[in-house]
Amino acid sequence: MPSGRPAKVDHVRDAFLSEIAAATSLVSAMQALPTKVRPSNNPGIHPKYVGQVVELAFMGVVASWEEFIERSLVRFLTGARTNNGYRPTLKAGKADTIQHAYELLSLDPDYKPDRSYLKVSDPKWVRKVADFYFSAHSFSALQNASDLVKHANAIRNRVAHDSTKCKADFKATAIHFLQPANGQLKQGYGAAALLQAPVQRHFGQQAIQQNKTHFIAYCDFFRDMASKIVPP
Q: 134-136 and 89-90: which strand pairing?
């Protein structure tokens, strides 16, 4: 396979940051609308529908995060540098193309991106494959972020699925963040409620003092992680 110029990577980070900005703008616009619980002639939207928009926006952010991880990982494996010159240190030769990088990462010479997927939702997998191919790399930033990513996945999965496992995982995540009395949540407590609830722990003192919601705190977290993995 012929060797070509390394792929660019800054645009991958910038595209993800744009997705976060779009999601936060959408949620902010929805939350600024007047609300009403009962039908009337007055303008307004039921809080349930606001919650659904918040859930869908969060799903989009998490999906975009996984796309960002995948796209940056395969590009760094081709030897891509950021505009400021950063690139991970390869242990051996670089991948010849992005397709070749997919084949190396998946250990599948017949890998087809439109039919298969890399396990980029799992921070441990990402760190392990990065450790395998790079002697030094920015994906090590995931070391101290794995729990927050894992809980983001649990929230996203609860929005997408109604399975018993997804419900159990989400309940564990909500209790982790809220630590309610007796370890019990209100009946019917869902992802929208958690995402719109103020942060109490695990996102730093500044997020607590600024009364940020879990949705906003997560957007800040993903934004920060993106700039650590693909430094501007």
A: antiparallel
State how far the alpha carbon of 22 is from the alpha carbons of 16, 40, 51, 74, 112, in Å: 10, 31, 17, 25, 30
Confirm if 143 and 127 have CB atoms less than 8 A apart.
yes
Percent above pLDDT 70 for the chain? 97
DSSP state of 46: -
pLDDT tier at 125, thresholds 50, 70, 90? very high
User: What is the residue whose two structure tokens read 């307004």?
Assistant: 44
- Mean pLDDT, the chain, integer: 93
State the burial class of residue 187 (Cβ atoms within 10 Å of its Cβ: 0-12, 13-18, 19+): exposed
| Nearest partner of 83 among 9, 177, 160, judged by Cα | 9
Query: 192's torsion region: left (phi>0), alpha (psi -120 to 50) or beta?
Result: alpha
Cα separation values, 50 from 31, 32, 34, 45, 174, Å: 7, 10, 10, 7, 19
The DSSP 8-state label assigned to residue 5 in this structure reads P
Model confidence band, residue 100 (pLDDT cutoffs 50, 70, 90): very high
